[in-house]
Amino acid sequence: MAPARKRQRQPQQPTGRIGYHLHIHPATLVLGRVEDVIADIGLYSMWDGGTVAGPAGIARISQIISDNGVENFPTEWGNVSSPPALFRTNVTSVTFRVEVCGTQAMARWVIYTWG
Q1: CB atoms within 10 A of CB 65
Q2: What domain range is 36 assigned to?
Q3: Cβ-contact 91, 66 below 8 angstroms
Q4: How far apart are CA 69 and CA 23, in angstroms?
Q5: Rg (alpha carbons) of the chain, rounded to whole number
Q6: 57 is a domain residue
Q7: Which of 10, 24, 26, 81 has a CA that sits 20 to 30 A from residue 1's CA?
Q8: Nearest C-alpha neighbor of 99 from the set 29, 41, 33, 36
C-alpha cells in the first residue's frame, strides 16, 4: 500500500458572511482638477438568486484626492462608516467601490461639478 499523500491547501478567496465569497468592484474617475465637486454613489438594485442566508451589499466612496490631500475611507467588510456622498474643492480623482456578498448588485455614481 502506498503512503498517503498530504493534501495541499488551496488559497482562499476573501469571504464575507457565512462563507459566501466577497466580490469587490472599484471604479476610479480621474477628473483633472475640478474646483467644486460633490461625489455621490448609491446602491439601487440587489438580487440574490434564492440564497438562504440573505444577500449583503454596500456602495461607498473609498478614496478621494483633493485640496484635503489623499483621503482613504474604511473598506473593511461590515464597516459602513465610509461616506456615500462628499463635497470637496479642487478634486483630482474619486474612487467608488461596490461590494457584495452572496448576491449581485448595481450602483450608480454621480459627479456634480461647478465653479
Answers
A1: 20
A2: 17-114
A3: yes
A4: 28
A5: 19
A6: yes
A7: 10
A8: 41
User: How many structural domains compose the chain?
Assistant: 1
- Mean per-residue pLDDT pooled into runs of 10, the chain (115 residues): 50 47 86 90 78 72 93 77 87 91 84 85
Cell of 100: 457584495
- Show Cβ contacts of residue 56 under 8 Å, excluding neighbours closer than 6 positions: 16, 17, 100, 101, 102, 103
Asked, for residue 4, whether it belongs to a domain, the answer is no
Backbone φ, ψ for residue 103 (5° rounding): -160, 180
pLDDT at 110: 92
Nearest residue to 111 (alpha-carbon basis) of 82, 80, 90, 86: 86
Q: What pLDDT shows up at residue 23?
A: 80
Domain membership flag for residue 87: yes
In a domain, 32, yes or no: yes
Q: What are phi and psi of 74, to 5 degrees?
A: -55, 135
Q: Are 24 and 99 in contact (CB under 8 A)?
A: yes
Which residues, listed in sequence order, are joined to residue 109 by a DSSP beta bridge? 41
Residues 6+ apart with CB under 8 A from 109: 27, 29, 39, 40, 41, 42, 59, 96
